[in-house]
Structure formats: C-alpha cells, structure tokens
Amino acid sequence: MKWTIHELMKLENVDNTFEETLDFTDYLENTDIIGISPVKVRGDFEIYDQNEFVFYMDIDCTLILACAITLDDVEYPIHLTVEETFSITPNKDFHSIEGITIDLLPIIWSNIILEKPMRVVRENAYEDFAEDLIEIDEDEDQINEAFLNLKDFKN
Predict the structure, then answer these.
(1) Which of 5, 109, 111, 140, by CA, is between 20 and 30 Å from 58?
(2) Largest distance between two CA atoms of the chain
(3) What pLDDT score was predicted for residue 124?
C-alpha cells in the first residue's frame, strides 16, 4: 500500500478508494502475537491544497494470542476505523512525507499493535484452573524452627 504523491493526485478525481488484503506474518517477530489473519483494509483518501493527504481506513483482522491463565490460543478480532494525515511540509500533528511516496503498511501495523490488549483470557479459563486451598487452624501454634531463636532477641 504505497503510492507516490503524483499517483494520488491523478487518482483523486478518478477513484480515490482502495481495498486490499495484507499479510503481516513477517511482522510477528519480537511480539507476543502467535498469529494474525490476513488484514483487510478498505478506505479512501482526500487531498487538501496539494499539501495534505488524509486517509480514512477500516482495518479488520484477527489476532491469535496466548491466554493469560491457560496459555491456550485465543482469537481476538480487531475492527478499527483510522484517520491518518500526511503532509509535505513538516508538521508535528501529521506524518511527514519522506521523499515522494506514502507507505501505509507501517501505519496499519502500528494501529494493530496499539489495539492489541495487554492480556487475554479465554472463555471458561477459570473452570479448568484449580487452587489448592489450605486451611490453617489459628489455634495451632506453628513456629518455624529457623526463627525460634529470634524470640529471645531484643534491641
């Protein structure tokens, strides 16, 4: 999803929409994402004063993440609506265009990463999780032998 500025200016009056399916499996290295479905991106763009390029995108994909309790695979669907602005002139509020091309791949990937939850728990994960509860009788005098000599210690 890369265009030159001149291509976008020509396409604005003809067809300013785009739709593409992207593969981000190569981007999973050094992340806690186990897998990702093909990412469907649909949208359009507008050009203002031949200086600012605004992209409106709908991003849909499914992440496969590890359950925080059982470590089983959990599918986490992501549906995003994103508006990103690129500018030829440097501006802190917009993405600066370096050279003559606009590449949306890093923008799409960063939006997916931002939407990814810190942890997921699969449905019914706690049903398989059992704790060993030990009841302690408060009347029992439990003294740890390692700390027995400390009772005679005074400041």
Answers:
(1) 5
(2) 90
(3) 81
